[in-house]
């Protein structure tokens, strides 16, 4: 009897189990159909805006610019043999190696620092604000920040200010000689064509600057009297109307602070600086002929800052703009990760005698490693597709040196080239570069979800 009862119980349990499985399967089936129904619009959108353009671009990349003639792999061969593609790939590599690393580092740094200050929320809000601005608008801002003109560009205004604190600007930029007594170029200096000796007076008339630009301390120009044993002269602005060229006329003013050198056998023997009336004196010169030289620094153009948007600096400048924009993004993720770190682990490390630096390196960073990796890979995907910031910030004269694949693809397809076959090939190349990072991120998300 006991055996029969046990058999009946087992049969009942099996029946309940089968009934439960059928019920769960029925529920899952209905839920799966409902989920598919809700996901259908998303699938349609993805098919229209991602899958179809990808397949179309792949097919279009095997045809010429007109889209009528099949050319096989010629577009890919042209892409990899074109110097523009080489520059774009090099710049993309620089972007991938530099920009995500710096943004991740700055984001972690700001997240840790703002966690320790009183107004942390306000500071984080300020750091995140650039994310609220479109890349196009940010590009316009940085195009102005790095403008060559110090009156417009903030960067050059600061550089010029610091430069002028240590290096005095020329008083007479662009000045040049009135007559053939002085020859040369303003960027190399001027020298007299006829030598002079002690006991003579040298007249050095100049033009090329406005009378209103003269220093405030300038006085009426005079030609000094001859003195035995002294070589004298005068440098003045010879621009008065109605006078005689090459002579000191009434109303003309001397040029103070001009450096004059006495040169003999190619060597500078003595140096003098003009007085407020433009006169200079060389005393106690050894007998013999001397050539007067006005060095180039007297007439050098004022320092106007650095060519931030020139071919040499344009890529670092654009990267700096992107770092300014994206640091708030990275900081937000890091701050969320820091908030989830168990405080017991940090306190235990401090109790064991670890310094704050050791706690940061050996506890905080390892615990944040998954978030750091996800942020870094996301930023890599972002920089591989960078387009609008480069397009806006880089001027036409240096856009070729700052080019990246996304911008080159647009230029080739819709710019002056108009070759959508080659542009499609570039888009497929860019897609293949982005795919590994996307796959890596997806695997990370799945691993984190499954534990």
From TrEMBL:
InterPro entries, alphabetically?
A: Ig-like_fold (IPR013783), MetI-like (IPR000515), MetI-like_sf (IPR035906), Sdr_B (IPR033764), UgpAE/MalFG_permease (IPR050809)
The protein's name is Alpha-glucoside transport system permease protein
Location, primary (coarse class): membrane
Q: Which family does it belong to?
A: Belongs to the binding-protein-dependent transport system permease family.
Biological process terms from the Gene Ontology for this record are: carbohydrate metabolic process; transmembrane transport
Matching entries from Pfam families are given as: BPD_transp_1 (PF00528), SdrD_B (PF17210)
The record lists the organism as Amycolatopsis marina
Q: Quote the PANTHER family the UniProt record gives.
A: BLL4140 PROTEIN, DIACETYLCHITOBIOSE UPTAKE SYSTEM PERMEASE PROTEIN DASB
Domain ABC transmembrane type-1 intervals: 89-441
Q: How does this chain sit within the bilayer? A: Multi-pass membrane protein
Keywords assigned by UniProt, alphabetized: Cell membrane, Membrane, Secreted, Signal, Transmembrane, Transmembrane helix, Transport
